[in-house]
Amino acid sequence: MDYESVYLQDSIEILELVSLHYFQYHKDFAFPGEAHPFWEFVCVDSGEITAIAGEKEIPLKKGEILFHEPNEFHNVLTNGKSAPSLVVISFYCHSPALWHFRRKCLSVTEQEKRILSKIIQEGSNVFSGRMDQPYQKKLLFSPEQNFGGQQLIRQYLAEFLISLYRRYFSLPLPGRSTEYFVEKGNRKRELYNSVVEYLERRIQEKLTIEEICRDMLLGRSHLQKLFQEVGSMGVMELFHKMKIDTAKRMIREGQLNFTQIADQLGYSSIHYFSRQFKKECDMSPSEYAQSIRSLAEEA
């Protein structure tokens, strides 16, 4: 019997490493910000920061990570009270899966923290110089490296990203609902449905009305008037309702806990998600889950 080999495909391939830093910011640290043609993430090991991503300010606390897409202007602001410790890694990667991380604020598990620790440990051996230099423009190889160190850095980084991807993006969102769309009939209705479809595609993100207007090439007053005339609620009100309706379907499916659902739908915290859920449904997520279980038992 002849044996046949199979090709193992890389879902996430790290092409080149640009920077690898682990350092403690001074509590009054000031950085002018930058944009560059490769991916970067910042992970908070201790303390808190405010990350700038484009025009957004995103608070990050211990155990949270934020990804910056290529050519996105970004910056880090400290609060003047504590000196945060950060892991910052930038790299070239053309794998389409990376775009799921765009502007995502995610939580890192203990296992993923250990993988980051391995990257830092290997990096301290592979590269010369200190790892707490945020202005370093080029990594320099150490003349004495452990065998396979460069390869392990690449593999650990891919493993870290795959682990995050599996937790947040491998489980598909519930199927789309048709209840938000209106019957076609004229250009206004078609435009309305185009905006609704756009909202569905961005259901996992934190959208502002300014971003919707920019991406849909609509003025703010035009967009608001469109939803007043065609729909039954404002555009942001509909977007929040779509998120909660999606959360309800995810709770009924029972594959994720409340924290994972909140993360998948772009909520900044489980507490904010719970408040928004109760505001929409007049019950908390746990009360809703209990009501579903009670109905199932009675059936």
UniProtKB/TrEMBL annotation:
UniProt domain HTH araC/xylS-type: residue ranges: 193-291
PROSITE patterns attached to this UniProt entry: HTH_ARAC_FAMILY_1, HTH_ARAC_FAMILY_2
Keywords: DNA-binding, Transcription, Transcription regulation
Name of this chain's protein: AraC-like DNA-binding protein
GO molecular function: DNA-binding transcription factor activity; sequence-specific DNA binding
Domain of life: Bacteria
One protein family per Pfam: HTH_18
InterPro entries, alphabetized: AraC-bd, Homeodomain-like_sf, HTH_AraC, HTH_AraC-typ_CS, RmlC-like_jellyroll, RmlC_Cupin_sf, Tscrpt_reg_AraC-type_HTH
Gene3D superfamilies linked to this entry: Homeodomain-like, Jelly Rolls
